[in-house]
Amino acid sequence: QVQLVESGGGLVQAGGSLRLSCAASGRTFSTYAMGWFRQAPGKEREFVAAISWKLGVNPVHAYSVKGRFTISRDNHKNTVYLQMNSLKPEDTAIYYCAATPRILPVTTGNYDYWGQGTQVTVSS
């Protein structure tokens, strides 16, 4: 069982930055791939970024955030991060982190554990 707690959301102006954190419980964090997803009002939850547990497998980022967002992890701190730069109003959503023992999935159905989410609001 893995419990996930997101933090770092908030209100920011367009062009600004935020760093989201997701703290995981348990001693097996290093054996889980971690993903970030987001859900805007009236829309389906969508993939943002993912990072594997497996060495040599590069992280992946959605096309819509590539070059602006960066996912990283610190296995000593049991934490995954999402650095978000050059934020746009269309990035406004609830951001969720998720965990899976699979190598590097990018779809919601392949993640087993989810956090409660953190709100990110980008004003124009």
Layout of SSEs?
Blueprint: E1 4-7, E2 10-13, E3 18-24, E4 33-39, E5 46-51, E6 60-61, E7 69-74, E8 79-84, E9 93-100, E10 113-114, E11 118-123
Parallel strand pairs: 2-11
Antiparallel strand pairs: 1-3, 3-8, 4-5, 4-9, 5-6, 7-8, 9-10, 9-11
What attributes characterize this protein structure?
124 residues; 7-stranded mixed sheet; 47% strand
Q: Alpha-carbon distance between the termini?
A: 40 Å
Q: Which of globular, elongated, flat, extended, rod-shaped describes the shape?
A: globular
Measured as a percent range, the helix fraction is under 10%
Give the class from helix and strand content and strand pairing. mainly beta
Task: Describe the main β-sheet briefly.
Answer: 7 strands, mixed
Q: What is the chain-wise order of helices and strands?
A: EEEEEEEEEEE
Instruction: Kindly report the average pLDDT value.
Output: 96
**How much strand?**
over 45%
By DSSP (H or I, 4+ residues per run), the number of helices equals 0
Q: Give start-end ranges of low-pLDDT stretches.
A: none
Number of distinct beta strands = 11
User: C-alpha Rg, in Å?
Assistant: 13 Å
